[in-house]
Design brief:
By secondary structure, the protein is of the alpha+beta class. The protein has a domain of about 80 residues. Helix content is about 55%, strand content about 15%. The chain has 6 helices and 6 strands; from the N terminus they run H-H-H-H-H-E-E-E-E-E-E-H. The protein is rod-shaped, with a radius of gyration of 57 Å. The protein starts with 5 loop residues before the first helix and ends in a 10-residue tail after the last helix.
């Protein structure tokens, strides 16, 4: 299927203007040729009138000479009746000039109206452009403000997390330094009961789920080796230091893990630092190689909860 010609695709006004311009160009060419022909015909008529007058005078002189041919008289009479034709084009030329004058005035008037419309259009377009620019500036400022607020929130959360991690790291270091040292008198516990003895002397089963945002997280130790570290379990049901525990935890992806460990330190809930989650720090004991590998792989995707000082 053939595509339409360029003239067919132009808007009606543009197509009409192009057609008129083409017609005007052709008309100018024809008028120029016509003016040349008229000028030539006028010059030829003038030359013919001069020849006619000269021929009349010559015939008169020849006819008056003695022994003139009688035919000269007939030719002289014929030329006396003849007249060179006159070419009078002033009337149609005047009408053409009048029409051109009217058309010129109409085009000037139309051009003036189009100029006024153009100025009004440009003013309206400038107003809309200013309104759009102001709206874009407001949107940009709002986006920058929202981004700044988000960054401020992120920085605050990061600083809080670092402070919490530093606190937990200091507590873990203190617990490792104390080992199994007896608790100070200020932290004395109530009298032992059979249930407490079972929790302190037997293994306690604990379960937690660790992901990218959980408070529970791994402590890789100061050597960054998970086999020398452990796990912080965020819980309000803390168990005493030295308690042996069996840990069931689930890594992202739903993979369950089972290990054993010993509670090395406990953090109780504190109203002065409510942002610090209570829980226990458990050191791994006899961590299987495949479990250590899985935990280490997870630790590389999330920063540890604790860092060495």
């Amino acid at each position: 299927m053939s595509s339409p010609s360029p003239a067919a695709r132009m808007p009606p006004a543009v197509s009409r203007e192009a057609e008129l311009a083409h017609a005007e160009s052709e008309l100018l060419t024809l008028e120029a040729r016509l003016h040349e022909q008229i000028a030539q015909a006028t010059a030829e008529a003038s030359a013919l009138a001069t020849r006619l007058e000269q021929a009349r005078q010559a015939l008169t002189r020849a006819h008056q000479a003695p022994g003139a041919d009688p035919m000269l008289g007939e030719q002289s009479s014929r030329l006396q009746l003849a007249a060179a034709p006159a070419l009078d084009v002033e009337a149609p030329r005047a009408r053409a000039l009048e029409a051109r004058q009217v058309a010129l005035q109409a085009r000037r008037q139309a051009g003036s109206e189009m100029q006024s419309l153009l100025r009004a259009h440009q003013e309206q377009a400038a107003q809309v452009a200013r309104a759009v620019a102001e709206a874009e500036a407001v949107l940009k400022r709002q986006a920058e403000a929202a981004k700044a607020r988000q960054e401020a929130v992120s920085r605050a959360a990061h600083e809080a997390a670092k402070a919490r991690q530093a606190e937990l790291a200091r507590a873990a270091a203190a617990a490792r330094a104390q080992g199994h040292a007896p608790l100070p008198a200020a932290a004395a516990r109530p009298a032992a009961t059979p249930e407490n003895d079972a929790r302190r002397n037997g293994r306690v089963r604990m379960h937690t789920s660790i992901d990218m945002r959980s408070d529970s997280n791994f402590f890789t130790g100061f050597s960054l080796d998970i086999s020398e570290g452990g796990v912080f379990i965020a819980t309000v049901d803390a168990v005493p230091r030295g308690t042996q525990v069996e840990l069931d935890f689930t890594l992202p992806g739903g993979r369950p893990m089972k290990v054993t460990g010993v509670v090395r330190w406990v953090r109780e809930a504190n109203s002065r630092t409510p942002e610090l989650m209570p829980g226990v720090g458990v050191q791994f004991t006899g961590l299987p190689l495949e479990v250590a590998s899985a935990i280490s792989s997870f630790v590389t995707t999330r920063d540890p909860m604790f860092f060495p000082d």
